Amino acid sequence: MRIRVSGKDIDIGESLQAHVNQALTESTAKYAGRPTDATVTFSRDGFGLACEVFVHLSTGLVAQANGMGADCYAAFEAARERMAKQLRRHKRRLKDHHKERPNPVDTVPAGSFVLAPFDEDVEDDEDHHDESVNGDAGPTIIAETELRVPSLSVAEAVLQMDLQHAPVLVFRNEKGGAINVVYRREDGNIGWIDPRVESGGSSAQG
């Protein structure tokens, strides 16, 4: 597995890189859909340090975990333990996914935007030239990145959302190709939005 270790305004020494490579390889090697590469990023968070880990599986799914600690080693161990817990929890589903999907997950590019909230207290300013949505008066785009939208079944999308510990996941439904959304509901169930369904109410999986 290829592992990239980096730090945001933090020096990453060889001993830390060696520890991360060995520990992460050992904790992820036993799971189906074996990891192909991973990124580990350290950054400062208040008086401590944060560690973010992304592990890309051979089937195309991605597991993500975060940890915090007094130093880089403690932050990494916290993230690694959470990663291992997520993979253990879904070990059987990952094995089934690996058997049922001979080829990796396809992805398509999409734009991801961060919008500033409305501020009704700020008066219009003729010199304000920030880009807004569709060029109309509305939320201002303050950041833009590109993401990859995976082509998945609904069951795979729920698994991917859990592996990334995310509140919502946008994906292309392999059955028909429409853009779908799964998300965590307040009642603990999983919501599923499928624009192709014209009647019959909403669908959900939990």
TrEMBL record:
<dbReference type="InterPro" id="IPR050574">
    <property type="entry name" value="HPF/YfiA_ribosome-assoc"/>
</dbReference>
<dbReference type="InterPro" id="IPR034694">
    <property type="entry name" value="HPF_long/plastid"/>
</dbReference>
<dbReference type="InterPro" id="IPR038416">
    <property type="entry name" value="Ribosom_S30AE_C_sf"/>
</dbReference>
<protein>
    <recommendedName>
        <fullName>Ribosome hibernation promoting factor</fullName>
    </recommendedName>
</protein>
<keyword id="KW-0810">Translation regulation</keyword>
<comment type="subunit">
    <text>Interacts with 100S ribosomes.</text>
</comment>
<keyword id="KW-0963">Cytoplasm</keyword>
<feature type="domain" description="Sigma 54 modulation/S30EA ribosomal protein C-terminal">
    <location>
        <begin position="138"/>
        <end position="191"/>
    </location>
</feature>
<keyword id="KW-0175">Coiled coil</keyword>
<comment type="similarity">
    <text>Belongs to the HPF/YfiA ribosome-associated protein family. Long HPF subfamily.</text>
</comment>
<comment type="function">
    <text>Required for dimerization of active 70S ribosomes into 100S ribosomes in stationary phase; 100S ribosomes are translationally inactive and sometimes present during exponential growth.</text>
</comment>
<dbReference type="InterPro" id="IPR003489">
    <property type="entry name" value="RHF/RaiA"/>
</dbReference>
<dbReference type="InterPro" id="IPR032528">
    <property type="entry name" value="Ribosom_S30AE_C"/>
</dbReference>
<feature type="coiled-coil region">
    <location>
        <begin position="73"/>
        <end position="100"/>
    </location>
</feature>
<dbReference type="Pfam" id="PF02482">
    <property type="entry name" value="Ribosomal_S30AE"/>
</dbReference>
<dbReference type="InterPro" id="IPR036567">
    <property type="entry name" value="RHF-like"/>
</dbReference>
<dbReference type="Pfam" id="PF16321">
    <property type="entry name" value="Ribosom_S30AE_C"/>
</dbReference>
<comment type="subunit">
    <text>Associates exclusively with 100S ribosomes, which are dimers of 70S ribosomes.</text>
</comment>
